[in-house]
Every structure is written in structure tokens, then in C-alpha cells.
Amino acid sequence: MTRDGRILYLNRYGRQYLGLGDPASDGANLSVFFPSQRAWDRFIKEIDTQGEVGGLELEWRRGDGKKTFVNIFACLEEVEGASYISGHICDLEGINRLLPVLKNSRDKFRNIFDAIPDLILGIDREYKIVSANRAAARWLGKDVKDVIGLSCSELFARETTCPRMSGDKCPAEIAFKSGRMFNTDVLLKDSEGRIRWFSAHAFPVLDDNEETRQVTLFLRDITSQKEAERQVTLLNQELKQTLADLTEKNSRLNAALNSLKETQAHLLQSEKMSSIGQLAAGVAHEINNPVGFVSSNLHTLLSYSKDLVEIIRLYLSLDEKISKAQGVPEDAIALIATIKRRREEIDLDFLLKDMNDLILQSIEGTERVKKIVADLKDFSHVDQAELKDVDINRCLESTITIVWNEIKYKAVLKKNYGELPTIIGYPQQLNQVFMNILVNAAQAIKGKGEITVTTRAVDKPRRGVEVEIKDTGEGIPEDVMPRIFDPFFTTKSVGKGTGLGLHVSYKIVKRHKGEIRVESTPGKGSIFTVFLPILNEDELGDAEEDDARPHPHS
Q1: Measuring CA to CA, which residue among 2, 15, 12, 10 is closest to residue 63?
Q2: What predicted TM-score, i.e. pTM, was given to this entire model?
């Protein structure tokens, strides 16, 4: 407006308040709204002498004629050599109506502000606390009003010193200088001297000129989190140490395992040699029988041959004499008499017949020796790792030949062989399985008993062959049954067994992806059943042995 009160511009609320349309076209004058000319003169005088009016309170007449009280704020401005007055008018009655609302809002804000459990502080550029919530005051052991004006450095633990003073990263200082939010972790000490970790978030509060007027500091207690992090760090260190210890122990275990494997290989070889040694006497006896009578026959044939040679010489001499003489000479007649007598003495007819029998027996003996040697050869390479087509009935026959000396004095052997398909497997290893079971069956019989070997083809639950070896021995005690396949377990006296026979048998059967089952009744005998599936080479391959111990009844 001009110095004489003519209104040049008035905002929309002002036009409504004063009841004016367009004040510039209406030629409205502000002086008419003053309560008196004296009040208007006073207003103009202050403008002229001071250049401004700040908070001039006076009675006012609104556009609707109602009187009220207002505060006037105005200043004198020079624009292109002309003087103008600009300012604004505050209706105190409206403000007074708003005060309870503002107070209520302030109280609600304060309640919310004080209900926040985090510490909230307003910090000015002098690093003094200008506002604080109840949690911050409680932390310092003071009332909120007593916190205002304190230095923010009093928050920090004496042992750590204020970051700003110690040259560390002070969140308030960095927020003031950068005008951006800054986060860090700090140590604070409460009124009772307890030191705790806090996460500090400093937020700059900007004025109208985009300058940082104040920093709001949010502080959240993270001591539990820090302790958890410390515990995690300690646990990580412990885990690293444990891992290192486990790595070392694993290395030792691997060395021990390699040593154990080497020992196991020696023990398995020992078991094989023990089995072979155990059968050596029986095999030798079986070989000695045919060899013995072949030898005896040969000695008898040698004696026969001497007599035959003598008779033949006499006949040759007689033939020579007769061929030279005219007629029959007397010495030829005497020689014929000698030949007849000698023929009767040696019983030439019996000798010729017996020679034939001896030769036939010797041939039979040599065939028996050849068979035993062939079976022994088949049996000798138990570690041979070549997959072949296996005839289980033939395997049993060759094994029975080898262990026959163990069986024949203890039991009557019955064989019920079924018609079987061939399977893919390791025949020498399967021979060892059958040998272990047959020898155990013979040793379980006290006195004279019976062993029955039965084979059959089966279709369910899998297609394959089944070998059943039944004995009438003493049976297996119930408390021993769960352990019979354990390595080194034996019920025999020291020096009589390694305890590996059935364990090795179990592993061989598992290698063939088969099953071995045992049923036993103490005092009546046992039945071992071996099932071997029909698989191709890809399915069987070089299958890893299953080290899990089976249940004997499974």
C-alpha cells in the first residue's frame, strides 16, 4: 500500500477478512479499518521513524463491522524511488482460538516424543542440548528441563571421551558440516556409571536458507546386539579353532583309517590263509587216497612185470632152441616144464587180469587227483576280481570237493540241486562263502549228523538263485545270533578261528547285492540261506561293499 493507506495488493484471506473485492480498483484505504485517526497516525509515525512496525497491537474493525484485536507487522520499502508499506496482520482472536488446539497438538506430540524408548536430542551449533525426550533425560538421571543447555559431550563415557573432542567421528559435527544424515556407533555412560553401546543417527534440521540450524540425534541402545556380535565373533573364533582341530583329527583319522585298511587287508589275507591252512590237511588226505593206491598198484605192477619178463625170457629161449633143433631136444622139453611150473607159481592168468584192474584203478585215481587239483585251482584265487558267468551248482560241487575231508567224518551230505540260471559274479569269492558256511556246519555237529545243500531258482521279491545249507548241529545261542557277522567275533577257542569267516562271507554276498539270512534253533541246528540276484555287469559292476552290519534274521 502507499504511505497514505491506499491498498495496492491484498491476499485472498485479507480480502475476505476486510470484506473487499479488488482493493486496487475499489480504491480501498487501510486507514478506515483503524479504530481512530490517532491510531493511524501512530502507525505511520513508527514506520517513518523506525522503518518498520513489529507486533503493534491495537483494536481493529473487520469488514463485517465486528471489532477484534490484531497484531500488525509492517516495514517501509523503496521501489524505483517510491515508498511503499508492506506487511501482514494477525487476528489475535483467531490465534487465541487456535492456541488450545496447538497446545493439545503439542501435548500429543510431547507424549509421543517422550514415549519413544530411544534417546532423542536436539543439538544446536554450540553443541548444546536444546531439546530432549524423557528417555534421554532419564538416561542422564535428570528432568527434561535440567537437560536443556547441557553440552552433548556429557553423554559420553569418560573412558572414551566425546568423539568431537577426541578427533573421532562425531555424528552431530559431521551432520552440521555436511548437511546430510550420518550414522555411527558410540559409547554412552548413564547416570549410574553404566557404559553401553548406542547406534547414533544424526539428522540435520535446515532453515529457510537451506543451512543446518540444528541436528536431531537419535540414539538406540545396541549393547545386546554388540554383545551378540562379540559372542558371534568369539564363536567364530572357537569354530575356526574347532575346525582346525577337526581338520587335524580328520587327518589323523584318515591316517588311522589307512592303517586300519592295511591291517584289514592283512587280516583278510590271514583269514584266507587260515582257511586254506585248515583245509590243507583234508585236501592232502583226499589227494593221498588216490595217490596211495596208485603208488601201491604201481609197485604191484612192478613186481608183476618182473615175473612177466622172466616168463617172456623163458619163452624166448625156448623158441630159440626149438628153431635151431631137428625135432624136440631134451633141454627144450626141460625148459617147457620149467615154464609150466613157473606159470603155475606166478598164477599168470590172475596176474594178467589183476594188471588190467590195477591199471584201470590207477587211471581212476589220477582222474580223481586231477579233479581235486582243478577244484583247488578254482578255489585258490579268492581275490580274483574278474566278473564271470557263474554256475552256482558247479561252485558248490568244487567247494564240497575241497572241504570233503571236513565233512565226511562228521555228517552225511545230501544235495538237492535245482535247475539254476547262471548269474554274473566272482566265482572264487562265492566259493569262499560256501566253504565258510559248510565248514562251520561240520564243526557245529557233535558226533555224526547231516548237512543238506539245496539250490533253487526264485522270482520274488527279486529274480535270482537261492542256496540253503542246513545242518543238524548244536545251533547258535540266541544272545550270540546278533553278532555272528561282526568282524573278529568267534565262539571258538583262542587260535581256532579269526572271527572273520562269516564277516567276509557277508561282505562278499553284499558285494553281489545279495542277502544272507540265518535261522537257528539251539540243540537242533541252523539254516544259512544265501540269495544272489541275477544282474548284468553294469548293475553289478565293481559294487562298493556295504559295511552296515545285517540283522541275522533279515
Answers
A1: 15
A2: 0.42
